[in-house]
Amino acid sequence: MTESPPTRAGFVALIGEPNAGKSTLTNRMVGAKVSIVTHKVQTTRARIRGVAIEGETQIVFVDTPGLFRPRRRLDRAMVAAAWGGAADADVVVLLVEAHRGVTPGVEAILDRLGEIGAGRIVALAVNKIDRVKSEALLGLTQDLNSRFAFARTFLISAEKGHGCDDLKAWLAEVLPEGPWLYPEDQIADLPLRMIAAETTREKLTLRLHQELPYQLTVETEAWEERDDGSARIDQIVYVARDGHKGIVLGKKGETIKAVSKAAREELEEFLGRRVHLFLQVKVRPGWLEEAERYGEMGLDFRDGQP
């Protein structure tokens, strides 16, 4: 009787500068949208876990906030969450944008990796390879590997999928043997309430462009399962100033209506059922200094201390 291959499971932390493609790669690997993706930097605030299956291996991707020089409490809490995700992972994958190369931010990450990388498998994924020529890619990978002893180097396009299957297959081989950590049909360990809030925040971020990059947050205040199988979701958009409320609402409420419609449609597709989404906008000047708001975002308020 042939023995079945052992199961494997473990955590893979994706780290890198803001906008390096971590959220896009998480969604690509999982095969569903579990992480917020926008053209803006620093949109991922909490460590979002997406669960992927490759053969007999369950790969839990930890999409961390982008690593950057923190200035405010929220910045510091995000950076602490990112390094916490890397320190807890079985494998770390550093994403570097091919067209940006070795920036001061990448150099700082490499220095820090030297401190936490001992005894941990660290791979390099050069992303957005379609933006540069092959000669430049060769030089960049040689430069990066001379600075850190990466276990493997992958050339990928998270957006288009190039090289992602090779990375996923390799991760499935190197993760430790053991039972799966989540049910087979689970793709994320975020509560649905947080996924719903992140979905609305993404739509706000896309709609408002550069106007409110950090000055708002979304919380799911109530979630009601209805008898007809649909769900009623009530959310609050917190902004820091009175002037921001008008921007979020838009002329005659057009902005918030468009955001609500886009978020509702995406949530209906994600949940596979009808959703009734109700949004309120509230001014809360000190929300960036409230521990409760950080808890709702999956961050530790104490990590934001100077």
What is this entry, summarized?
The protein is an alpha/beta fold. It has helices spanning 22-30, 73-88, 104-116, 134-147, 164-174, 192-208, 242-249, 254-271, 291-296, and strands spanning 8-16, 48-54, 57-63, 91-97, 121-127, 153-155, 216-225, 231-239, 275-283. It has 2 domains: 8-174, P-loop containing nucleotide triphosphate hydrolases (Rossmann fold); 192-304, 2-Layer Sandwich (GMP Synthetase, Chain A, domain 3), CATH 3.30.300.20.
Structural write-up:
With about 300 residues, this protein is an alpha/beta fold. The chain has two domains: about 10-175, Rossmann fold (3-Layer(aba) Sandwich); about 190-305, K homology (KH) domain (GMP Synthetase, Chain A, domain 3), CATH 3.30.300.20. About 35% of the residues lie in helices and about 20% in strands. The protein has nine helices and nine strands. Helix 6 (about 190-210) crosses helix 8 (about 255-270). Mean pLDDT is about 80; it is low at about 35-45.
Question: SSE layout and pairings?
Answer:
Elements: E1 8-16, H1 22-30, E2 48-54, E3 57-63, H2 73-88, E4 91-97, H3 104-116, E5 121-127, H4 134-147, E6 153-155, H5 164-174, H6 192-208, E7 216-225, E8 231-239, H7 242-249, H8 254-271, E9 275-283, H9 291-296
Parallel strand pairs: 1-3, 1-4, 4-5, 5-6, 8-9
Antiparallel strand pairs: 2-3, 7-8
| CATH architecture descriptor of the largest domain | 3-Layer(aba) Sandwich
Fraction of residues in β-strands: 15-25%
Task: Give the class-level CATH name of the largest domain.
Answer: Alpha Beta
User: Which structural category do the helix and sheet elements fall into?
Assistant: alpha/beta
Poorly predicted tracts of residues: 36-45
Describe the global form.
globular
For the largest beta-sheet, the strand count, sense and barrel status come to: 6 strands, mixed
What is the domain total for the residues? 2
CATH superfamily of the largest domain: P-loop containing nucleotide triphosphate hydrolases
CATH topology description of the largest domain: Rossmann fold
Helix/strand order: EHEEHEHEHEHHEEHHEH
Provide mean pLDDT, rounded. 80
Question: What is the rounded distance between the termini?
Answer: 61 Å
Helix content: 25-40%
Strand count: 9
Strand order of the largest sheet: 2-3-1-4-5-6
Number of helical runs? 9
Radius of gyration: 20 Å
